[in-house]
Amino acid sequence: MRKSRILTGIGLAAVAMITLSACNSGSPTDPGAGGTETGGDEALWEVATEVDLTDSPTYDRMVERDGVIVGVKNDQPGLGYEDAVSGERTGFDVDIARWIAASLGFDEDQIEYVTIPSNNREQAIVNGDVDYYVGTYSITDGRKEQIDFAGPYFLTGQGLLVAADDDSISGPEDLAGKIVCSVTGSTPLQRIRDEYSPGDTVEYDTYSQCVEQLKAGSVDAITTDEAILAGYVAQEPDALKIAGEPFSEERYGVGLEKGDTALKDHINALFTDGGDVWTALFEQHLAPAGIEGEQPAVDE
Ligand code: GLU
To answer: Whole-model pTM?
Structure first.
């Protein structure tokens, strides 16, 4: 019932087209190719040619501009990463953003990426600086007062990153007397302060800044989502490790302008019908770092 209503809303033909796997239309990491696949020979999606999306102010703005502005992260390997030399953007979140753009009829060279740190996300969406945001963005009631979320499209949980040779921390209860680093405006920083008793907390704009502090020995641990931490461990397994088990549930959503229900429903239908694409992106970007997971159902 719900599914058929959404299908009707965005056009059956468009849904059928955008969820086709293995059609050839280029690569999301190859700006020249016009929008699909990363690293293999087969395209994961096509750029939609018949998009029927009415009553979405955000989509109208994209059409007017003839392009999409997407908010992302640039320092989270496997999720949202920008190569400092080539400028190439890669990761699960970046490809989710590309997939959404393709479903709306925009290919890679019509996407502008804007790197926005955790603390500035709601404001960037409220200001209309980005059309949507895909970057380890947990769905919370507090954030929903300012913006809407499509999804969730991924579930993870808060964890701890420590030096590989540190056996003194195996959970958030072991943080007494320890200095813990996290990011301003993030749910993990709030939770570690509200629910646990670390010796001290320090905050930066980005998690890569925390990683530098940890490697320099000026903090004892970093706390954020395990999916993010696993990406850092995969880059430097001799220096870093995850300590203990996750101690929260973080549900990643796509941040949208509040009230743009048409766009939210469109993205949710894309996720619901696009299990093959989701799995391919997960296998490509997250499974190699040892991350496990299944595609969650989107919120009603
Ligand atoms: N998922 C958490 C949040 O949205 C932490 C990751 C991040 O800061 O992006 O706050």
So the answer is: 0.88
